[in-house]
């Protein structure tokens, strides 16, 4: 009985430490690529300045991405001949837009970071935040 209690206690402690170590933080990219968030903001501001409705469109992209199975960037995947993605699903077709802005953001972030380090899901989330501010 004591070994089982010890095992459960250690398992709980390990899970608590893992959850703490893997928790989301607003400054995650500060060390990996400090230019990432300013780059996203710059592209979003330019897109909203060019077309005011783009702010709402980027927010809507994030909402639609998070809708089915969580915020995972899957809305950005292109369909193939064997698989239809969320992007072209009936509920999203002609309903979501701004994909070209997300492509611009991804290209700029990869450029300033020197490599692809920012996830597409994070780009959608930060772009949504910045588009609301813009």
Short recap of the structure:
Ca(2+) binds at residues 65, 68, 70, 72, 74, 86. With 134 residues, the protein is mainly alpha-helical.
Task: Count the beta strands.
Answer: 0
Strand-pairing-aware structural class: mainly alpha
Q: Beta-sheet strand percentage?
A: under 5%
C-alpha Rg, in Å? 19 Å
For the record, the count of structural domains works out to 1
Rounded mean pLDDT score: 86
Helical segment tally?
6
* Spans where pLDDT lies below 50 across 5 or more residues: none
Give me the strand/helix succession.
HHHHHH
Give an overview of the whole structure.
The chain has a single domain (31-133), classed as Peroxidase, domain 1 (Orthogonal Bundle), CATH 1.10.520. The longest helix is centred in the first third of the chain and has 20 residues, at 2-21. The mean pLDDT is 86. It starts with a helix and ends with a helix. Helices cover 61% and strands 0% of the residues. The chain contains six helices and no strands. With 134 residues, it is an all-alpha fold. The active site is at residue 64. Keywords: Calcium, Disulfide bond, Heme, Iron, Metal-binding, Oxidoreductase, Peroxidase, Signal. Residues 23-134 form the Plant heme peroxidase family profile domain. One of its GO terms (molecular function) is metal ion binding. It catalyses: 2 a phenolic donor + H2O2 = 2 a phenolic radical donor + 2 H2O.
